[in-house]
UniProtKB/TrEMBL annotation:
SUPFAM superfamilies: ARM repeat, Clathrin adaptor appendage domain. Residues 665-780 form the GAE domain. It holds the Pfam family Alpha_adaptinC2. Residues 1-28 form a coiled coil. Residues 592-616 are annotated as: Disordered. Keywords: Coiled coil, Cytoplasmic vesicle, Golgi apparatus, Membrane, Protein transport, Transport. The keyword Transport applies. PROSITE patterns: GAE (PS50180). The lineage of its organism: Eukaryota, Metazoa, Chordata, Craniata, Vertebrata. SMART domains: Alpha_adaptinC2. It comes from Rangifer tarandus platyrhynchus. It is found in: Cytoplasmic vesicle membrane; Endomembrane system; Golgi apparatus. This is AP-1 complex subunit gamma.
Amino acid sequence: MVASSLKLQELIQEIREAKTQAQEREVIQKECAHIRASFRDGDPLHSHRQLAKLLYAHMLGYPAHFGQMECLKLIASPRFTDKRVGYLGAMLLLDERQDAHLLITNSIKNDLSQGIEAVQGLALCTLSAMGSAEMCRDLAPEVEKLLLQPSAYVRKKAVLTAVHMIRKVPELSDIFLPPCAQLLHERHHGILLGTITLITELCERSPAALKHFRKVVPQLVHTLRTLVMTGCSTEHSVSGVSDPFLQVQILRLLRILGRNHEESSETMNDLLAQVATNTDASRNAGSAVLFETVLTIMDIRSAAGLRVLAVNILGRFLLNSDRNIRYVALTSLLKLVQSDHSAVQRHRPTVVECLREPDASLSRRALELSLALVNSSNVRTMTQELQGFLESCSPDLRADCASGILLAAERFAPTKRWHIDTILRVLTTAGTYVRDDAVANLIQLIGGAQELHAYSVRRLYSALAEDISQQPLVQVAAWCIGEYGDLLLEGNCEETEPLQVEEDMVLALLERVLQSHMSLPATRGYALTALMKLSTRLHGDNNRICQVMSIYGSCQDVELQQRAVEYNALFRKYDHLRAAVLEKMPLVERGGPQVNEEAKESKEVAQLSEAAPVPTETQASKLLDLLDLLDGPSENAQHPPPLDPTPGDTLIHLLDLPCTPLPSAPIPNLKVFEREGLQLTLSFVRPPGTPTLLLITLTATNTSGGDVTHFICQAAVPKSFQLQLQAPSGDTVPAQGGLPMTQLLRILNPNKAPLRLKLRLTYDHFGQSVQEIFEVNNLPVETWQ
């Protein structure tokens, strides 16, 4: 059976000549039977050939697990031809999940102790490819000895094996610290590159190693300056750039060594400027070096001029014809926009041009960066550009673009009219893609702008007459027509073109909305309510409105049926109350103080609230139940008065407490959230004079390397509780353990029931938008008993 076995070349030829999968499978199965028989017979002369054929079958995807023990036998063989195939089989067939890999530890140790370079190289390659943590601990002393061997071939492989060991077992770093200092003086390119990689791994995993290798920063600076200014052998140059792989690796190591260390950063500042100015960016190799230089400049404590130079390099990347380079530049600028906003602003026209990229990934990154660049000085220009992009962008980007424009308008709107016009244009262009709270926010905005009621209702009527497919737009228009229909008929608005509107035209338009197959049940509810309100705004006969209400009194939709039945009851039984019930909504001051019906505030409190308005960047405080938090803000939500951000008597008066410092209650703090360095902690205080009141201070800290921006926290409690969410101290949580952000929650628990708290966090971190919703049900008992 063994004699009829094929040679490796013959097996490859037969497999390639197989015309079907079945023929190939037949050849493999037949040859695997020969291989099994050979292993069983123990043929020492041809076993390496049989294993080579089995490895080829393994590479084609066929099972080869029965060759694992044969690999161990060949590795233990004194013949080099056997060891070569045995080690190759071990790398392909063995891994950490199989106990058999531990059986070769002794063989590798013996081979590393031999003086044969080829055998030592095979053992080191196998150990670096599949060595487990146990093997690394057992063989670390042998690898350390080989780091200082005379042979450059062995030293290079030993360095790479040490890198694998550090990644597997970081506590082995102390063993490899001494040899690394000597290996930095190597002239051999492969050894030097491997040593830099090894030191990088050590510094990332060991604070002691990081402190130890900060002493070699001048030596690394000298090595990199030599590469940049004088170059090295042309053998390692790529497209005219001297050894870009070594340059990139040194820059990465310098970035780690200079992070949060003033002296090291000062040492490398001049070098980074030389690299940034002397590297040719016309080739990919040069662009890679420049990009790594930019990352290093931004991560260390570099000079301000150097940071501007780094941003300008990224700006030049945006003009590159390579899409990958442009994508990298957009991603990097997005990370820098918070720390170097003014420098990134200089490249705003180029970023806006990237919005027109046909590549979806590029246009998405350009959109995120454009939204991050919007501020109070350029909001008009940027919003106009973004609205143009919204009209032509792909459906995948419309939701993000529409939401971004609405958020920017809410934060930086110069006037209320401009704000209303902006939202209306977004709703007209991409109404189906806006956030769920866009309708409530626009209604609140229009309701609070008394001088713009006539202008708004006429604009919305015209937009609704042209298109009734955009449901959010239809809902806002229906609300405004019902609320300010009398202003629509007056026609005395000087800010819009003359528009003659008759009562029948308004009623016909709302009936058209009710009958449209595109209208959602919620939209029909808005239209039905608008018709009912118009019964008190218009001066004509209400028979047409009564007929509509009668028709919808038998509607299949329960919500619409209930509304119509109640409205019919107003007409028939309580017609004398209809005018009072359907009065105009009271004015809502956006972001201003609202009176809570259950709160008893003195005149002094009201004066303090008026004297300290809430900034427009922060969301207004809302009393929300659990459903409100998940379904979006309610348009009828009451807004409790915000606290004065300054500590002292104001806080005490707002809470109706005595003018004495709040005693600290012995309630333990509770950490409720942690992700990528962002931590959220709750601390509790129960004022002695008000036992049903609980004050929760929410503290957000950030230990990561990037700022957390646009941080918004919303809270919800069961309906038996009363929640007042005060304005936060800011919307940015600085990186590296900077000043924490705090926010006060005031919870009234009249029944002293167990407290459950649901939180929703939205923020931007490392260029990504994050939303987290979670429930806190393990609050200390002292918070409610």
